[in-house]
Structures are given as structure tokens and as C-alpha cells.
Amino acid sequence: MAATMDAVARLEQEMAVLARLLEALSRRRMYPLERSHYLLLLRLAEGPRRIGELSTLLALDTTTVTRQVAAMEAKGLVSRRPDPEDGRSALVVRTEAGADCVEAMRKTRQLRIARLLGGWEAGEVARFAASVERFNAALYDRLARPDEPLPEQIEEQAD
After folding, report:
1. pLDDT at 147
2. Whether 69 contacts 40, CB under 8 Å
3. Of the candidates 157, 154, 33, 35, the residue with the CA atom closest to the CA atom of residue 104
4. What 3-state DSSP class applies to 93?
5. CA atoms within 13 A on the CB side of 109
6. For 79-135, how does the pLDDT look when each residue is reduced to its tens digit (9 = 90+)?
């Protein structure tokens, strides 16, 4: 377990640095979309969604997603239409302008990531992508169980 905890300690520190570096790069890049709008538009590429579905997929409160959708609607990136399955609800749909904007940004981001990984072997990139995808799945799984105690809470209860 000590070797595992050493690796976890390294990973924790590297993830903190990664978060900081990604934030710094994001501020410099002057992307045409805010990160939240980018992620929302990517989810809408899969088809129209209700606000509640988007909030779950994006791990955000519904009021936050509602505000984001309103701001995006004002910019012409999304629109709302009646939900044919539930007349009380609306579906959020990305507009052609939203689709064009998010696809252009995605291509730019992918080219920048490819440049960063230029010295990596294809297998290394594939393993890294799979590891990040697996880690994100673990985060989504944890977020889906908000009432489950965290490990430190379990240790405190045992004392």
C-alpha cells in the first residue's frame, strides 16, 4: 500500500499543477466560448436535451445550467423548443451558429493538444486518453453518490 500511496501523493500534486496550468492556458487562449458553454454545446451535439439532463451530464446545479442556457440563447448559440414528450418542459438545441463555433473551437483545441503530445508514441497517447477517461468516469460515479461518506469522514467516525 505504501507504493500506491506514494503514487497517489505524486498524482495529487501533479493534478493540482495540471489544473493550474490548464487554467492559465485557458486565460491566454482567448477561446470564443467559455468552458461551460463549450462543454454544454459538445453535449448538445448528441441531440436536444432537457435542462435536468444537462445538469447531470455537466455535474452542475440546474439553476446554473438554466443561467448558462439563457446566456447562450442570447448569443444565438442555442435555442429552446417544446419537449414533445412533456409539454411542461423545453428541450435545449444548439443552433447552427453554436455548432459552427464549438466545432471550430474543438479543432483548435485538438491541434493544440496534438502539438503538446508531439513527442509521445501513439500507444502512450492512447493509454493516457483511456486513463483520463477512466478517471473522469470515477469522478462522475462519485458525484452520483453525494450522500456516501468520504474516506476521511469514515476514519473520523471510527475514532
Report:
1. 79
2. yes
3. 33
4. strand
5. 17
6. 999 988 887 889 999 999 999 999 999 999 999 999 999 999 999 999 999 999 999
Cα 138 to Cα 47, 134, 143, 145: the distances in Å are 25, 6, 9, 11
The residue whose grid cell reads 445538469 is: 55
Note whether 157 and 149 are within 8 A (CB).
yes
> Which residues 6+ apart lie within 8 Å of 31 measured at CB?
38, 105, 108, 109
Q: Which three cell numbers stand for residue 69?
A: 442556457
Return the residue matching grid coordinates 463549450: 38
Where helices occur in the chain by DSSP H, the ranges are 2-29, 35-44, 51-58, 62-74, 96-116, 122-143, 151-158
Q: Domain 27-144 falls in which CATH fold?
A: Arc Repressor Mutant, subunit A (1.10.10)
Per DSSP, 75 falls in state: T
